[in-house]
Write a structure and sequence with these properties.
With about 450 residues, the protein is of the alpha/beta class. About 60% of the residues lie in helices and about 5% in strands. The chain has 17 helices and seven strands.
Length: about 450
């Protein structure tokens, strides 16, 4: 389980209990991830992370098949097979959190479908342009910067249509209509539930300056270079758009690179097919050995890796002990509040967050790697105090004493401590988590 998965799961828990998105659960993603988690939990049970990971696996397989179909269109069956295999390997490489149910893993599937539908639209008619636009919108609803895929398709159609501007304008309009139908439906939903202003603040205003990505995928870059060709312009736009999207904001989270792996694996599959079709037996053996070695190495590492704390085999610190204690000393309907940047405690305890904040760095201003004010959102304090007063949690879990990258005790924050001091007492400390129980 990854930390971000804990955030999505905690918010989905509140939504299952009838909560309102961005009012009863705050994160900086667009609604797609929260509703996806909510749907999975509604079918398979609250906090069923096995079901989430099964959904991730199915999404990865589907993405591989789609990019295989795209590569096959350009260079035949061999290109399709290589593109699919390369995506499966490299979408799980770099570090084991790549396997988590994060926004990127789900965003790349509708992104690949956007390109696939766009390519089919050239041959099959206008309905596919509408479908491409709709898939582009679904990509956006998973992650803001994934909009780059749709923008890449628009750019390719605009530049390719210089010889026939009238037809290009029609096609661009159809792409925009398909996109607008999905986005418009989500906007209407957010307005209907009274969360539109909150959604704009948390998903755009707060994170406008954020995001980054850079990883080493040299085998794919080399193969993509070997398969270069002008007829693949939309694939290059697809790749360039998502590389730019990943670089926005200057952050170095490795899983952000998933945004451009589908395009890069497609181009690499085409390059691999053209390279191997030249009959170079030695190169074929080296390529197969390299891809197999990377796949095997990361599979071994992934089996050893515990995602929530970045430890080997078991969490360190073992937050599950604190979660287990809370689960045993509360009822199923009790809410809890975690002070820190560790929402996995909610999942381990099988208890819903009692506030909209599944992590609190936006309240303390503290990040795991930055200064104490680089994440501060002053407006969040009034929201927190409103939530605590409306539904006081059974336990407040303070992660500041433990090794959770959050050395900021609640006593330092007057508004929070004035609420806690007369109502809560420290019952025990487990695995570096202070457990404040409501009196």
């Amino acid at each position: 389980m990854d930390i971000d998965e804990g955030s999505y799961a905690g918010i989905a828990c509140r939504l299952l209990d009838g909560g309102t998105i961005y009012r009863d659960g705050v994160e900086n993603k667009l609604p797609g991830m929260f509703y996806l988690y909510k749907a999975v939990f509604a079918v398979f049970g609250r906090y069923n992370m096995v079901a989430i990971h099964a959904a991730v696996t199915l999404a990865a397989i589907a993405t591989a098949l789609v990019i295989g179909a795209i590569a096959r269109r350009y260079a035949g069956d061999r290109a399709g097979r290589w593109a699919a295999v390369l995506y499966v390997v490299f979408s799980a490489s770099y570090y084991p959190k790549m396997l988590a149910g994060n926004a990127e893993m789900f965003a790349v599937l509708p992104g690949a479908l956007t390109v696939w539908c766009y390519l089919r639209a050239r041959d099959r008619g206008i309905g596919w342009y509408l479908a491409a636009g709709a898939c582009g919108a679904v990509t956006l609803l998973c992650k803001q910067v994934a909009l780059a895929t749709f923008l890449a398709v628009l750019a390719d159609r605009a530049l390719a249509g210089l010889r026939d501007p009238a037809r290009a304008l029609r096609d661009l309009a159809l792409l925009m209509v398909g996109f607008a139908l999905v986005v418009g439906a989500m906007v209407l939903h957010l307005q209907r539930v009274g969360a539109w202003d909150d959604a704009v603040f948390w998903t755009w205003s707060y994170v406008l300056h954020y995001y980054m990505l850079l990883v080493d995928v040299s085998p794919l870059l080399y193969l993509a270079y070997r398969g270069r060709g002008r007829e693949q312009s939309v694939l290059y736009w697809w790749l360039a758009g998502n590389v730019c999207a990943g670089l926005v904001g200057g952050r170095m989270y490795g899983h952000y690179f998933l945004l451009f792996v589908p395009a890069l694996a497609t181009l690499a599959g085409i390059g691999a097919a053209r390279w191997l079709n030249a009959g170079r037996v030695r190169e074929r053996r080296w390529l197969i050995a390299l891809v197999a070695a990377i796949a095997a190495a990361f599979f071994v590492v992934a089996t050893m890796f515990e995602g929530a704390t970045g430890a080997a085999f078991t969490p360190s610190p073992d937050y599950r002990e604190a979660s287990c204690y809370v689960r045993e000393h509360t009822g199923d309907g009790d809410g809890i509040f975690v002070w820190g940047w560790f929402p996995a405690l909610y999942v381990g305890a099988d208890r819903c967050p009692s506030t909209r904040f599944v992590y609190t760095h936006i309240l303390s201003g503290a990040g795991t790697t930055g200064g104490e004010r680089n994440h501060l959102v002053p407006e969040a304090w009034d929201m927190l105090m409103h939530d605590l007063a409306a539904a006081p949690p059974a336990y407040i879990l303070d992660t500041s004493p433990g090794d959770y990258n959050y050395p900021f005790p609640p006593e330092r924050y007057p508004q929070l401590w004035e609420f806690m001091a007369p109502r809560y007492r420290v019952e025990t400390t487990i695995a570096g988590v202070r457990l404040f129980r409501r009196q």
